[in-house]
Amino acid sequence: MDDTVILATDEETSLAEPLLRPWIYQKCQLMFVKICVPDAGSEREVIAGPAIATPKGIPGRATLGLPVYDVTTGNLGFLKDTWWDASLPHELKMLKTLNDADVRNVPTLVCGGVIPRQITTSHKYIDEDWNLGAYPPVFRIREHQRILTEEVGRPLNHFKSSKQLTRIVYEAFLGEYSRRCLHNMQILHRDVSSGNILIIYDNKASKDNHDGGGHGMLNDWDMAIHTDDLDKAAPQAKPTHQQTRQCLADMAPW
Questions:
Q1: Which fold has domain 1-152?
Q2: Domain locations in the chain?
């Protein structure tokens, strides 16, 4: 039982619903929950409605993306709830590094961390005789983590014009391939795809209404890695297909 998620009270729901309503796409009976997010040794409470990003299959990190109402600030935010691969650099630290270096068009970190005592245990049984499907060279230890960021974006397929689409993709690539990110810090995103490029409408967005406005953001830095560590990461990344299909296709030797 996960006691870090409970039903929101009527009062909490009444505060959160006006901010979350524009992000509720499906017609269903609404249920709002209160979620605890690690925050520098303490906890921050957020109110969430339906997720706008859900897992597309059984294998993977079981990632949920939820627009949330931040009880502390009263602002809208975005909560990423996922089972982090403990062999990879921590996305939380990666985002903090990017933010501290003022890399543009990447999520702005609010808080986050690993949920205590929520960790997979399959690695403990990898060598058991009864585990006939085991593949010892490649296994994952996953920890449950939540990351709260400021921006809530629209999917790339919600573009308003071809000009806006081109600009949004360009701006998202500026995040990974900027001089600060790639050249100075030697960080690669490794999972650039249409699903990880978002359209952000906020006070940083372009005021140009001729193409639809907004600005591009490159999201999901959980596969990001320092270029010095690429050789160590490659043998594990390939057999388990951690990248999206589009990203894997780009890496194929043809």
A1: Phosphorylase Kinase; domain 1 (3.30.200)
A2: 1-152, 153-253
**Tokens 């909560």, residue located:** 79
pLDDT surpassing 50 at residue 236: no
In the numeric block, the tokens 């058991």 are attached to 128
Instruction: Write down the H helix ranges in the chain.
Output: 10-20, 91-100, 162-177, 230-240, 245-251
Structural fold of domain 153-253 = Transferase(Phosphotransferase); domain 1 (1.10.510)
Task: State pLDDT tens for residues 84-129.
Answer: 888 888 899 999 999 998 888 999 999 999 998 899 888 888 888 8
Residue 217 near residue 198, CB atoms below 8 Å: yes
Topology alike, domains 1-152 and 153-253:
no
Q: State the residue for tokens 């505060």.
A: 15
Nearest to 82 by CA among 223, 194, 192: 223
Q: How far apart are CA 219 and CA 197, in angstroms?
A: 6
Left (φ > 0), alpha (ψ -120 to 50) or beta: where does 55 sit?
beta
